[in-house]
Design a protein that fits this description.
two-stranded antiparallel ribbon, single chain, rod-shaped
């Protein structure tokens, strides 16, 4: 299929022709301008003053580059120094914190040792107190049995032992309240000494008033006339 020829008017043809001519003129002017600039550049390069100017400019650029490199190196050195100081300061602070932690740990260890020592002493004192209480209970039980045997048999061998003064805590001072009143609300748990005779006006062991009546009927072990005997009174604790 053949394409139909496009016909343009004379006006459009002139318009297109002028456009192409202007383009050619611009291209020619550009080429001429490039030629003139290249010739001028060649003349400049051939000129000693221009060569000196280029050398000076290159030298200035080199100096500026070296200065920038020095400034960069200086900033880097300053940053490294600041980093070193920061690391040293951090290490010192860490050492202080570790020293403080060690000191606090040592204090805690010392407090724990003191607490354990106090607990050990308390446990030891409690054990000794329990042993003393057990020993006192055994002694009172033996005295009670001997008192019952003496009240039942009247054997004189028991009388001397029953008249012996017994101390609850011989190594400590006497309980002032017990010495003044003959009784103590703490009993054998008292930290003071309770000197008690085996047989006296004041019942000083776990012997009932009925047993003291039997004792008073068999002998004058209490050493108190019958009207003044306190065997009927309540038993006092020590």
């Amino acid at each position: 299929m053949a394409f139909a020829e496009t016909k343009i008017s004379h006006r459009e043809w002139r318009k297109l022709f002028k456009k192409r001519r202007r383009k050619a003129i611009r291209q020619k002017a550009a080429l001429e301008r490039c030629r003139i600039e290249s010739e001028a550049e060649e003349r400049k390069r051939a000129c000693p003053e221009y060569q000196a100017l280029l050398a000076e400019k290159e030298q200035q650029e080199q100096i500026a580059a070296e200065r920038e490199e020095l400034e960069r190196a200086l900033r880097n050195a300053i940053w490294l120094e600041d980093e070193r100081k920061a690391q040293v300061l951090f290490a010192q602070q860490r050492q202080k914190v570790e020293a403080k932690e060690r000191e606090e740990q040592a204090k805690r260890d010392e407090l724990r040792k003191q607490y354990e020592e106090s607990e050990r002493k308390l446990a030891q004192a409690k054990e000794e107190r329990l042993q003393q209480q057990e020993q006192m209970r055994r002694m009172l039980h033996e005295r009670h049995i001997k008192m019952q045997e003496f009240a039942a048999t009247g054997v004189e061998d028991y009388l001397t032992e029953l008249r012996t003064v017994h101390n609850t805590r011989p190594e400590t001072e006497n309980c002032k309240f017990f010495l003044r009143t003959g009784a103590c609300r703490h009993g054998y748990r008292c930290s003071g000494n309770h000197p008690t005779p085996g047989a006296s006006q004041e019942c000083s062991c776990s012997i009932s008033a009925h047993e003291w009546k039997i004792l008073c009927q068999k002998t004058t072990a209490c050493g108190v006339p019958e009207p003044d005997c306190v065997a009927d009174s309540s038993v006092r604790t020590f």
